[in-house]
Amino acid sequence: MSIQEGKIKLDKVFSSLGDSTRREILNRIRLKPLTVLELASGFRITLPAVSKHIKILSEAGLLKKEKSGRYIYCSYNSETLKPAIKWISNQYDLWDKSFDKLEDLIKILQNKK
Description:
By secondary structure, the chain is of the alpha+beta class. The chain has one domain: Arc Repressor Mutant, subunit A. The chain contains 5 helices and 3 strands. The chain has a 3-stranded antiparallel sheet. Helix 1 (3-17) packs antiparallel against helix 4. The longest helix is centred in the last third of the chain and has 32 residues, at 81-112.
């Protein structure tokens, strides 16, 4: 995967996680796969709306769909989150180090008084 493809994939992950319904769908399938109908029954939105959310999650790679007989099962693909977690961790480290430096500077300035 090229750097550009990785960026696009990461954008899709963050974009898909920006919706509370999609986050709830992932939360519900975290422990076990559920059918589309089982997922839809827990929301106050239409089946087509749930299907649209499932499609977005699937395109981002966060959700896997598998057909079994007449049913489509949705399962959680946590591997897709690893690059996003790494990116967030890097940002956290950057800010954490910046605040540590700021704290050190404040201490130096206070000691000069």
